[in-house]
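Whiteboard transcription, Tuesday session. T.W. wrote the C-alpha cells on the left side:
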C-alpha cells in the first residue's frame, strides 16, 4: 500500500511539473510587443486611452480597415509611445483649457490627439496624450495633412464658440455619400435657419477635406447657435455620422 501511495504521489508531482513547463513555454515565447486581449465593452478609443496611444496608431499597427470592427477575444498589438510624447493625468479642478495653456498648446490640439469632442469632457485620473511636436493649427488650414485621429466627421471651421455671420464657410475632414456632407445651422431654440452641403475633395468614398458655404437667416439678436455636419445613408436617407460645434450667431 505504501509503495502504491508513493508511486501515485510521484506521478501526480510529475504531471504538475509537466503542466508547469507547458504553461511556461508559451509565456516565454509571448515576450515581445505589448498586446491587449479585447474584453466585452472595450472600444478602440477606450483601449487607446488605456495605453496612452492614438486610435490611428492602434488601427495602423493592427491593420484595421475599420476601427469599429473589433471583437471580444481579439488580440491587439499596442504601439510604442512616440518620442517627445508626454502623458498628462488630469487632476482635480483641471480643465482642458488650463492643461493646454500649461503645455503652450491650443485645447483643440489636445482634443484632436485624444478624440475629445468637447473641451469640457475631461475627468480626474484621465490620461491625455500631449505631443510637443504639434505645431500646426488645424483651424487655419483644412487642406493640410489629414489629422492623425480620423473621426468620421471632424469640423475645423468654424471653431467652437466662434462668432459667425451669413454666409458661413464650413471646413473639416470626413467622408460621405457621393462625396457630400449635409450641413444644418440651428438657432438658440434649435430651429433650422440654414441648410446646405459641403463637398469632399477626395476620391469617391474616401476620407478627405471638405468645404461648403452656407447661407442662413441671421437672428435679430446675437445668440448661441449650432452648426451640424452629417453624412446620409444611401439605403434609407438616415443620418449615419454627425459632428456639431456651438457658435455665436451675429445679426
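and on the right, the sequence the group agreed on:
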Amino acid at each position: 500500500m505504501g509503495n502504491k501511495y508513493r508511486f501515485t504521489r510521484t506521478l501526480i508531482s510529475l504531471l504538475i511539473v509537466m503542466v508547469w513547463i507547458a504553461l511556461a513555454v508559451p509565456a516565454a515565447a509571448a515576450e515581445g510587443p505589448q498586446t491587449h486581449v479585447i474584453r466585452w465593452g472595450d472600444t478602440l478609443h477606450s483601449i487607446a486611452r488605456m495605453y496612452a496611444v492614438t486610435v490611428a496608431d492602434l488601427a495602423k499597427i493592427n491593420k484595421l480597415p475599420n476601427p469599429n470592427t473589433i471583437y471580444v477575444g481579439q488580440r491587439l498589438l499596442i504601439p510604442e509611445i512616440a518620442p517627445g510624447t508626454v502623458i498628462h493625468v488630469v487632476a482635480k479642478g483641471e480643465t482642458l483649457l488650463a492643461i493646454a495653456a500649461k503645455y503652450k498648446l491650443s485645447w483643440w490640439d489636445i482634443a484632436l490627439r485624444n478624440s475629445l469632442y468637447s473641451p469640457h469632457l475631461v475627468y480626474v485620473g484621465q490620461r491625455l496624450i500631449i505631443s510637443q511636436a504639434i505645431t500646426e493649427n488645424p483651424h487655419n488650414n483644412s487642406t493640410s495633412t489629414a489629422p492623425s485621429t480620423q473621426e468620421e466627421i471632424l469640423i475645423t471651421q468654424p471653431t467652437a464658440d466662434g462668432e459667425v455671420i451669413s454666409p458661413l464657410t464650413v471646413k473639416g475632414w470626413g467622408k460621405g455619400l457621393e462625396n457630400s456632407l449635409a450641413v444644418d445651422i440651428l438657432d438658440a431654440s434649435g430651429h433650422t435657419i440654414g441648410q446646405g452641403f459641403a463637398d469632399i475633395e477626395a476620391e469617391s468614398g474616401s476620407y478627405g477635406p471638405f468645404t461648403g458655404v452656407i447661407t442662413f437667416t441671421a437672428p435679430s439678436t446675437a445668440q448661441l447657435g449650432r452648426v451640424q455636419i452629417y453624412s446620409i445613408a444611401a439605403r434609407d436617407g438616415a443620418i449615419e455620422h454627425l459632428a456639431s460645434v456651438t457658435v455665436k450667431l451675429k445679426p
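Someone added at the bottom: Confidence is low (pLDDT under 50) at residues 19-32, 132-144.
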